[in-house]
UniProtKB/TrEMBL annotation:
It holds the Pfam family Reg_prop. It comes from the Bacteria. The keyword Transcription does not apply. Residues 1-23 form the signal peptide. This is Two component regulator with propeller domain. InterPro entries: Reg_prop, WD40/YVTN_repeat-like_dom_sf. Keywords: Signal.
Length: 335
């Protein structure tokens, strides 16, 4: 059992679908470099063509094609970019924590803010569901965009917390929300806070995935008790098989990914308050359901490790406080 001081985390969700119908910002002139960004990289995603998309705070949104890095947001200026997604139509959505969302169609960029109906301009998450609808998580609530207007979902509608970090649609069409408070699910009508076998909520969830077998994986903190302004918590990596929540390990997990071989990868801090070393870990697929799964520590770094991605060549990319790294199974190289 470990402890941290009580601190407020707010963020939330938002629905969106295309770049149509919003105020045009202008045409972008991309800049190209042989080097990747040297700023904090929060998220790394895969583009439609297999390229690597990188969200670097105060540096930009970059696309790596295997040879060079192209800054897609050169003309937008310095923004606190947090997340990125290329949708099925080829639009690149760029989330910021202070100025809403930018949508780049390859020629021009459009800007979405609270003026267009977003619940908040601090956007942490972007997700495209199976129907092609784009979801966003903001500090002010969840929102859905139908191409004309936004439908906002907040605690007034039953959302567990107005700070959504991540979202997932599972194979049954249920949506899972990780928030700064309790995590919850949504069936299209009702929000349900999910709890462990002792009835306690899963808090401060930053990543949720569904593996190839249909199990839900997420990192969360369980509050054991509170004394004054201090929370005593137990962090960990959890798995849900549709009936039961199983704590896989005590190790924290802020980002989670399943690779093509079925291994589970995580980044997470050693300390529950995020201070000190952060670790990139791999859980071997052959032992995932053992009482103590085999875990390999790939590397550690001070302060922060962020999003994880498996590239088409099998290499693992991950963000950090000082840029983006590539691991080829033997060597880690900063790009």
């Amino acid at each position: 059992m470990k402890y941290i001081h009580l601190y407020a985390l707010f963020l939330m969700f938002l629905f969106c679908a295309s770049c149509k119908g919003q105020a045009k910002t202008g045409v972008l002139n991309d800049t190209v470099s042989s080097q990747g960004p040297d700023k904090m990289v929060r998220n790394v995603k895969k583009g439609k063509d297999g390229s690597i998309l990188i969200a670097a705070s105060l540096a930009g949104i970059f696309r790596y094609d295997g040879r060079s890095f192209t800054n897609l947001t050169s003309n937008i200026g310095a923004r606190r970019f947090w997340n990125v997604l290329e949708d099925r139509q080829g639009n690149v959505w760029c989330a910021t924590t202070e100025s809403g969302v930018y949508c780049y169609n390859g020629a021009s960029v459009r800007h979405f803010t609270t003026k267009e109906g977003l619940p908040n301009n601090s956007v942490m998450s972007i997700y495209e569901d199976r129907a092609g609808t784009i979801w966003f998580g903001t500090r002010g609530g969840a929102s859905r965009y139908d191409g004309k207007s936004f439908q906002n979902l907040t605690t007034k509608e039953g959302l567990s917390n107005n700070g959504v970090h991540t979202i997932l649609e599972d194979k049954n069409g249920k949506f899972w929300f990780g928030t700064g408070g309790a995590a919850c699910s949504y069936d299209g009508k009702t929000f349900t806070v999910f709890r462990n076998n002792e009835g306690k909520t899963f808090n401060n969830v930053w990543s949720i995935i569904e593996d190839r077998k249909g199990n839900i994986w997420f990192g969360a903190s369980i509050t054991d008790y509170k004394t004054g302004d201090t929370l005593f918590i137990s962090p960990g990596l959890w798995r849900y098989d549709g009936n039961r929540f199983t704590k896989v390990t005590e190790r924290a997990a802020s980002a989670i990914m399943e690779d093509t071989k079925g291994n589970i990868w995580t980044t997470g801090s050693v300390s529950p308050n995020g201070v000190g070393d952060w670790i990139l870990s791999r859980y071997d697929q052959s032992t995932l359901y053992d009482e103590k799964p085999a875990v390999t520590k790939i590397t550690s770094i001070k302060k922060m490790l962020c999003g994880i991605l498996e590239a088409n060549d099998g290499s693992i990319w991950f963000g950090s406080i000082n840029g983006v790294y590539r691991y080829d199974g033997k060597t880690i190289v900063r790009k």
